[in-house]
Amino acid sequence: MPKKDKSGEKKLKKEEKPLSCWIEKERLNGRIVDCLTIILRSRGCRWGKCLMCGFPRFSAGVEELKKQIDYAFKRARKKPGILKIFTSGSFFDDEENPSSFREYVYDVAESRGIRKLIVESRPEFVFNCDAFNRDFELEVGIGLETSNDRIRDLCVNKGFSFDEYLEAARFLRDRGAGVRTYLLLKPPFLSEGEAIEDCLKSINDCAGVSKTVSINPVYIPRGSYIERLWNCGAYRPPWLWSAVEVLKRAYEVLSENYRIGYDLNLICDPVGAGSDRAPHNCGRCDKEVAEEIRTFSIRQELVFEKRCECMDFWRRYIGYERVARFNVLCL
User: Which residues of the chain have pLDDT under 70?
Assistant: First the structure.
């Protein structure tokens, strides 16, 4: 007989449970609603060569993936309006997620009254998208990281060009789907100041085809190339002040042409904020600054009021890096 847990239910295997699932807040057409976020135990990204990648890989089959979806909905204490699925890869890659599994996700979303489905994909697999003309909105996240092809190639090793991203984004937009563009704040080998300016330029470059622009300050996963740089003192994760600077300056520029929170959502979730491996300031203000960043992402309003002595040090830090780079170039 199958084993049962303390509640009397059949005990599931590890492969039948997602890595994680939780209810969070997301914006839907200008309103704040509950979102069920699921991180699946999937095969992971076929590319797998990005310098900051440390995602685990699993061998879950189609039936196990379906049970992971069922498990997440069963554990959700609220009825979500949005379903967000992370596969640590490309949702529309048939090798990672067979079409039979994707159809199951669509059917579950419709039967559960989901109003918006958010998934992610590399540009080359977007053209396999089979979720058009369903009874929910579709938003597809693409990890562009930066609009600068040279930085994406040398500092991230993403394996596609900005033009390929634009082609995929326009394909989705022309068919009524939204595009969620992920941008990386401070790829390796960039100084803090360079990272801020690159992120701001990238936001401006992709805003015209994106429904949502998500700023992702680097988190250092175990087993990644960027962890090796960090271990030898050759990399520091971005300051939280840098994320605040990007959001404030981008908001001021974009609000001249877009209704922020309606036409365009500008968001940031500093994963692991305050730890050595994640975006952090001095340690005293990290929690409050990270919370202001998350509040901005939900409300789409400038809410940044926190001040700390380390803000002056952050400004000097950027200046010192700029001088050091200049001196090196002059040698």
Answer: 1-10, 55-57, 59, 324-331
DSSP per-residue codes, 10-66 = BPPPGGGS-SEEEEEEEEETTEEEEEEEEE------SS---TT---------HHHHH
Neighbour order of strands in the sheet with 116-120: 20-28, 31-39, 82-86, 116-120, 137-145, 178-185, 212-217, 265-268
Give the CATH number of domain 14-330; options: 3.90.870.10, 3.20.20.300, 3.20.20.70, 3.40.50.970.
3.20.20.70
**By three-state DSSP, how is residue 128 classified?**
helix
pTM (whole model) above 0.70: yes
Give me the phi and psi of 107, to 5 degrees please: -65, -40
Tokens 């979500």 appear where? 80
| Count of all residues that appear for the chain in the document | 331
Helix, strand, coil percentages (3-state) for the chain, rounded to 5, are 40, 20, 45
pLDDT digit string (tens) for 209-235?
999 999 999 999 998 999 999 999 999
Helix axes 192-206, 310-330, angle to 10 degrees: 100
Distances (CA, A) of 161 to 49, 164, 199, 243: 15, 5, 16, 25
* 73 residue type, one letter: F
Tokens 């310098």 belong to 51
**What one-character-per-residue DSSP string does 47-58 give?**
S---TT------
CB atoms within 10 A of CB 123: 25
Q: Are strands 31-39 and 20-28 parallel, antiparallel or unpaired?
A: antiparallel
Tell me how far CA of residue 227 lies from CA of 45, 47, 79, 185, 272, in angstroms: 19, 19, 38, 16, 15
Q: In terms of Cα–Cα distance, which of 149, 154, 150 is closest to 166?
A: 149
Torsional class of 138: left (φ above 0), alpha (ψ -120 to 50), beta (otherwise):
beta
Query: What is the rounded end-to-end Cα distance, in angstroms, of the chain?
Result: 74
How far apart CA 220 and CA 184 sit, in angstroms, is: 12
